[in-house]
């Protein structure tokens, strides 16, 4: 018995016929949608789903000289990648947004000099079409400078310190968010509000500290400030230092939820009650915020929206548009810690 013939793979012509548009219109949609009307774009996307058409990545790469991949460049240690859940949320969101365009996401670690050198060589050699830069530090400007100098399209998560006019970015409103959280603590009647600030070489660390200080105004006291590196251990160490200096403090704002969790560990171990003795607030609304005892009051960052906007802006830069910047609002989430 003769086997049935193999099912023919749908072509661009099939998509064009189903959409009622020209072959050229379909091709433009597949290569970014430039110069295509909204109605035609919707018709082509519908026809692609109807026909089951799939792009041949190798053929498209040869035709467009593109790698069809984007780098998720993380300038942190490997430990931070696994300790901070925000990176996983951003990576998952970016991968999902890129998958719509049949573009792969490649994770590149650049937490030390050797990794930064390899990352620079890989990225500037054309192995990726663009870069999503996550957690940039001002002391790693060499890496960013080489990416910018090579003309590689890039969008940063957070303000890329020193490169604000050369690289687009998507950021949460760290300053306003910090002010709102500190205002909430003060509204509870707390008078000795300390902070565990983030690293000085990150935009988030800088802006959240500025928001804290400005909200306190004349009540700001430098001795109520300790700095961590966003890890739980640094939050615990900073809380220990603050209690030694000011055992009478009655509130603490930590620049991220992971450090806030470390602070709560120390407060409870010292016999203090949260929030009765010391109210605690964080920033991010990461999964750990619901796992602490008590659950953590914090500022919610829209990480999924941030990753979607980063991909959208990056694809526009890859398509030839000028870099743009977006700042998204944060929202106060009140739980039992404050």
TrEMBL record:
Task: Report the InterPro entries cross-referenced here.
Answer: HTH_LacI, LacI/GalR-like_sensor, Lambda_DNA-bd_dom_sf, Peripla_BP_I
- The HTH lacI-type domain, residue ranges: 10-64
Signal peptide start and end residues: none
What the entry lists under PROSITE patterns is as follows:
HTH_LACI_1, HTH_LACI_2
Query: Which organism was this protein described from?
Result: Cryobacterium adonitolivorans
* CDD domains documented for this protein: HTH_LacI (cd01392), PBP1_LacI_sugar_binding-like (cd06267)
**Keyword Cell membrane appears in the UniProt entry:** no
Q: Provide the coiled-coil residue spans.
A: none
Tell me the superkingdom of the source.
Bacteria
Recite the UniProt keywords alphabetically: DNA-binding, Transcription, Transcription regulation
Q: Which GO terms describe its molecular function?
A: DNA-binding transcription factor activity; transcription cis-regulatory region binding
Name by which UniProt lists this protein: LacI family transcriptional regulator
């Amino acid at each position: 018995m003769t086997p049935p013939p193999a099912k023919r793979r749908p072509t661009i012509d099939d998509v064009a016929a189903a959409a009622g548009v020209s072959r050229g219109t379909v091709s433009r949609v597949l290569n970014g949608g430039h110069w295509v009307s909204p109605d035609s774009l919707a018709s082509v996307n519908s026809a692609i789903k109807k026909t089951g058409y799939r792009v041949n990545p190798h053929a498209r790469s040869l035709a467009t000289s593109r790698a069809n991949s984007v780098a998720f460049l993380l300038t942190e240690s490997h430990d931070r990648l696994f300790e901070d859940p925000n990176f996983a949320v951003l990576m998952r969101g970016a991968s999902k947004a890129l998958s719509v365009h049949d573009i792969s996401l490649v994770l590149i670690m650049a937490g030390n000099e050797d990794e930064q050198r390899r990352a620079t060589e890989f990225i500037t050699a054309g192995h990726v079409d663009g870069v999503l830069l996550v957690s940039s530090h001002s002391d790693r400007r060499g890496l960013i400078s080489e990416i910018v100098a090579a003309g590689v399209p890039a969008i940063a998560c957070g303000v890329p310190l020193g490169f604000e006019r050369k690289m687009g970015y998507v950021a949460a409103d760290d300053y306003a968010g910090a002010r709102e959280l500190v205002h909430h603590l003060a509204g509870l009647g707390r008078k000795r509000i300390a902070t565990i600030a983030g690293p000085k070489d990150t935009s988030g660390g800088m802006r959240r500290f500025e928001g804290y200080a400005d909200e306190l105004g004349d009540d700001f006291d430098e001795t109520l400030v300790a700095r961590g590196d966003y890890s739980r251990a640094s939050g615990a160490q900073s809380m220990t230092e603050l209690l030694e200096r000011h055992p009478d403090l009655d509130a603490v704002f930590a620049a991220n939820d992971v450090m806030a969790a470390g602070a709560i560990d120390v407060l409870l171990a010292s016999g203090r009650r949260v929030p009765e003795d010391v109210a605690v607030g964080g920033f991010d609304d990461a999964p750990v915020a619901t796992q602490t005892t008590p659950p953590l009051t914090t500022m919610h960052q829209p990480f999924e929206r941030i990753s979607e906007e980063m991909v959208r802006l990056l694809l526009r830069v890859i398509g030839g548009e000028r870099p743009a910047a977006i700042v998204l609002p944060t929202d106060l989430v009140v739980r039992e810690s404050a």
